[in-house]
Specification:
mainly beta; Jelly Rolls; 7-stranded antiparallel beta sheet; 39% strand
Length: 202
């Protein structure tokens, strides 16, 4: 299921201050702290792929998964779902649980795998039951994290603040009806994402 058509915000709802705008077939954060969430559908077990790029290492954003209707308050997604973090500096304290690839405040990434500001990065986020796995640029940064929160909910993107400028594109989610094992090769899911991204568009 394609979550963003590259031209409009159809299916998406903004909670809190700030906004997202469409620029060159990508979503561009403005202001905050806010949350742009895909209100058209909820996900249970899923595999989410997307690309993002920051404009500086201090840029802060994130991808939220499995949170309930935030009821206009973006921090509800923080408290009730999980955030896969984007912030190479790990504000406010530089701790690994606050850096890019972490499940924010809960599980640090196994390694730093983000590219330099201005370059596109690729996340593959998979949730099956309460087990979460995250790949960043073909590297496994979260492996078999066991969550305790909702097993079904919405997907969202964070616009963190005025100085944070992050772009998102090529967001797709695949529902998983049965548990699936991670690919034997760490690059297989990343290569599948690249094939989707490079496929001809109508």
């Amino acid at each position: 299921m394609v979550l963003f058509d590259g031209a409009t915000l159809n299916g998406w709802t903004q909670a809190g201050p700030g906004s997202f705008t469409v620029e060159d077939r990508a979503l561009h954060t403005q202001g905050g702290m806010g949350l742009l969430w895909y209100s058209a559908a909820q996900c249970g077990d899923f595999e989410l792929t997307l690309e993002w790029k920051a404009t500086r290492r201090a840029d802060n954003s994130g991808v939220f998964v499995r949170f309930p209707d935030p009821l206009g308050e973006p921090r509800n997604a923080v408290a009730q779902g999980y955030e896969v973090q984007i912030d190479d500096l790990g504000a406010p304290d530089g701790a690994a649980i606050h850096k890019t690839g972490a499940i924010y405040g809960v599980q640090p990434p196994l390694l730093a795998a983000s590219r330099a500001p201005g370059q596109w990065n690729a996340f593959v986020i998979r949730a099956v039951g309460q087990t979460y796995n995250v790949m960043l640029n073909g590297q496994r940064v979260i492996v078999d994290f066991l969550g305790t929160r909702l097993r079904r909910g919405f997907i969202g993107l964070q616009n963190h603040g005025v100085s944070d400028v992050v772009y998102f594109r090529n967001r797709q989610v695949v529902p998983l009806s049965t548990p699936l094992e991670w690919a034997a090769s760490r690059d297989e899911l990343f290569e599948r994402h690249l094939r989707r991204s490079n496929a001809p568009r109508a």
